[in-house]
Specification:
This protein is α/β, with parallel strands linked by helices. It is built from 15 helices and 18 strands. Helix content is about 40%, strand content about 20%. The longest helix is centred in the first third of the chain and has 17 residues. The protein starts with a strand and ends with a strand. The chain binds guanine and fe (iii) ion.
Amino acid sequence: RDITLLPVIEGVQVYPQYIADGALVVDDMIGCIVEYGRSETILSKYANEEGRLAVKVHDYRDKLIMPGFIDTHVHYPQIDMIAAYGEQLLDWLNNYTFVTEANFGDPKVAHDTAQFFLNQLLANGTTSAMVFSTSHPESVNAFFTESHKLNTRMITGNVLMDQNAPDNLCVPAEQGIRDTQNIIDNWHERGRQHVAITPRFAITSTPKQLQMAGELYASYESVYLQTHLAENHDEIAFVKQLYPTHKGYLDVYDDMGLLGRRTTLAHGIHLEISEYERLRATGTQISHCPTSNLFLGSGLFDLPKTLRYTGVSIATDVGAGTSLSMLTTLSEAYKIQQLQSNQLSAHQGLYQITLGNAQSLLLDNKIGNFMPNKEADFVVIDMGATALLERRMAQTKTLEEQLFVLMMLGDDRVIDQTVIAGVSRYRKSTL
Ligand code: GUN
Ligand code: FE
């Protein structure tokens, strides 16, 4: 077998493991990690009696190798309306988002955008994501088709919405559920693709639709569920108006059977203690979306408080989020915690966007670090990609300091190469 060997001068491995002058051994026939270690040790192990290497060597001296980044909440169709001016959540949805999403019944639009979006993820070092498509099954088929070609590990599903949205996005409850069922039959666990049952949020689904989504969720062991929760005060008030007899926003989802360990709820900024307790009791995960929360003026997410109750992942939420870069996202997450006198260290942040996010999505047996037999999704990072970074890095004394500068100043410019299951899928243009 042609095993790829990747000696590096520096390399972050399992958090907080760091190997200066390390090597990563990849079996590129099966796309998995064989082992890693000090390059000297690895090189001698793979040399034959004449001292020649039985493997192909890629030298990334002076670069840093990290596991691929994972984005746990992002809307691929919204890449076409990212950075739309002036509104908070509900007006932003009505005035910009729904208008753009209506285009995705056209398979050509869906394929073009899915392809562009996936390439943008790779350019940002993101190798896996939990994604919203639109309510059109075409949008999901297009996304999975393009992802399957790239062999990226992705999760998505058709967005369920049957009220409080334009007619061209609403799909009757039974039809939406049938569409999801077909998508599960066609795509769930085909290659590296997974399906998530995807009610948009309590406002755009009738009780009947939410209930059917809950029944479908209960009938599968490995299908995911994703939706939004408690992002904005007007949104919460609207949910209370639609569901006056429920205890609160989370209780609507709880009552409909939507909570559980395979459920990821985006935002969860404004919650009562009883709601945090239900998150804990059900194992439901929260996805924190810092650039989105700032852009839509939604509020300040309390990371340490939420972590006391349940698993938290971190995500971009493009197109309300303003960057697909998980590094930029961490930098904004840090500032949101600073405003509340909380900290977010570089180790915690970088752990979160790799193994931490993998754990939240129950994918840590497959991705998230460089343990043997995991899938070889990784990024090659150029810590001195810009003149400023190069100058600033030269002033650092410790690894922690370097990683913190990377987290605060890094973005797509530091991503030199992105490798998916042992295959290089993105290389930064040097022109
Ligand atoms: N809540 C319901 N839909 C959306 C969406 O598309 N983006 C965000 N940020 N919040 C939502
Ligand atoms: Fe979202």
